[in-house]
Amino acid sequence: MSVWRRKPINLILAESSDEGKAALSRTMSMYDLIALGVGAIIGTGIFVLTGVAAAKYAGPGVIVSFIIAGTAAGLAALVYAELASLVPVAGSAYTYAYASLGEILAWIIGWNLVLEYVVAAGAVSIGWGSYFVDLLKSFRVILPDSFSRSPLEGGVINLPPIMITFLMTWIATRGTRHSAQATKSIVAIKLLVILVFIIWGATRVNPSNWIPFAPFGIGGIMRGAAIVFFAYIGFDAVSTAAEEVKNPARDLPRGIIGSLAISTILYILVAAVLTGMLSYTRLNTSSPVSAAFLAAGIRGASAFLAVGALAGLTSVLLACIYAQSRIFFAMARDGLLPPVFAVIHKKYKTPYIDTLLVGLVVALLGGFLPIGMVAELANIGTLSAFLVVSIGVIVLRKTMPDLPRPFKVPWMPVVPLAAIGFAVFLIFNLPRLTWIRFFIWMALGLIIYFSYGYRRSRLATIEEQRATVVLENLVPSPARKPDQEDRE
Predict the structure, then answer these.
(1) What parts of the sequence cross the membrane (predicted)?
(2) Which of 134, 280, 320, 340 is the most buried (most CB within 10 A)?
(3) CA neighbor of 59 nearest in space, from 277, 231, 210
(4) Sign of torsion, CA 72 225 219 93?
């Protein structure tokens, strides 16, 4: 049996039909998708990573870092849009790799997507907790460090991230419609807050804070781009919803590209205002937006922004939990994970066991790890997924040119090759320690695949059945002794 076996697209589409036993219900519109994408993208980058990337890597040049990372994400978004319209099922990059490059790479991508979503959700929950603590400070309420910091930061347990994670997990288990409604409401709140921050903060900008613009040099800006790329992972969450969209061929490309375009513009504007309001040396905090207004002595505005940040991070957390549970569902349906992860709730029609497991792991990450360690791990998982998907779209164009493609990547193969180049460049700009952790994670994933998924996948079962039929046809039946009837 080959680890390079590919899953036929007609089989993938058959499994996702509404009549299938393990299929999800199609209830989402294009506006739900855009809300999901904006909800997943806008949050961590603006409310958490902007300050850390400016203080430690790029200075005010973090504005350019966002442009570079946004360009890389935009190229990848075009690739995702084609594959999402071609294979509109749950699983995102994992499913695309299975159809184009083979099972082993599909497993690797699925395993790396755990880094993308579970670890990203952990980072988001930590940022949420930091803003929650800042909001309490605005009302003169101080939460003890023992219950608002991780053990590695001198605390005992970080409780706020755990509380919000459990709440979002409960919402996610109750169905796509409930999640979509909650996401749209939260997104509306955070967009209002972001616009207020941009307009209000622009009046407090001091141009001297932009000098020097690149205190860590061009290399610092590039490293900043590799770090803030984490902020753009949300559009991938749109493709994970493919199996629950009413008109996926039309709406998936629009949802992916539209949500990314809106988010990129807002990221650049916020980065410019934030670094203009406060010196980059003072932005090394997981709540830089409210910290900037607190430093300016505007307590009421800080509380208002903290509420917006909480809303923004809440929607990202919900989207990450939603997306990862769908990827686990797709992998279990293929036999690469135990069948319990393919069970759908009878009432809510959601993979609730996956959702509960994801929520539990995210809560543990948020409660016991610092944000810097968590964000770096999420980035390398995302970039590796983008790299393989970009290769996959080129392979499918060559091997299956006649497949109907409602959306096609323009300037083929220039765009996917550029996406590959950006992904490789950003990967090599990540810290060395991130690489070490990544290789450990990969080794663990390969052990799980070869000890479980390799022989239990659905394609392995099909191969074994075919091999049995061939052997039965080749090997003659054993000769039997003549009985009395034969002798007569």
Answers:
(1) 33-55, 62-81, 117-136, 156-173, 185-202, 214-235, 256-280, 300-323, 352-371, 377-397, 409-428, 434-452
(2) 320
(3) 210
(4) negative
Q: From residue 485, how far is each of 28, 481, 488 by CA, in Å?
A: 70, 11, 5
What is the DSSP code string of 19-56?
Answer: TSTT-----B-HHHHHHHHHHHHTTHIIIIIHHHHIII
| Residues in Cβ contact with 185 at an 8 Å cutoff, skipping those fewer than 6 apart | none
pTM (two decimals): 0.77
Mean pLDDT of 35-42: 82
pLDDT top residue among 83 and 16: 83
Share of the chain above pLDDT 90, in %: 20
3-state helix, strand, coil in the chain (%, to 5): 75, 0, 25
Write b or e for each residue in 188-205: b if 16 or more Cβ atoms lie within 10 A of its Cβ, otherwise e.
ebbbebbeebeebbeebb
Q: What secondary structure does DSSP assign to 213-234, as a single string? A: S-TTHHHHHHHHHHHHGGGGTH
The reported pLDDT for the residue numbered 449 is: 94
Q: What are 133's two structure tokens?
A: 């603590």
Gyration radius (Cα) of the chain, Å: 24
What's the pLDDT at 19?
45
**H helix or E strand, kind and range, residue 187:** helix 176-202
Residue 420: C-alpha distances to residues 294, 395, 457, 480 (Å)? 41, 13, 29, 63
Residue 267 identity: Y
* Of the candidates 51, 54, 73, the residue with the CA atom closest to the CA atom of residue 64: 54
The region of weakest confidence among 84-88, 333-337, 444-448, 457-461 is: 84-88
Counting beta carbons within 10 angstroms of the beta carbon of residue 318, is it exposed (0 to 12), middle (13 to 18) or buried (19 or more)?
A: buried
- With beta carbons less than 8 A apart as the criterion, state whether 234 and 41 touch: yes
Distance CA 86, CA 254 (A): 14
Task: Give the model confidence (pLDDT) of 150-177 as tens digits.
Answer: 887 778 898 999 999 999 999 888 866 6
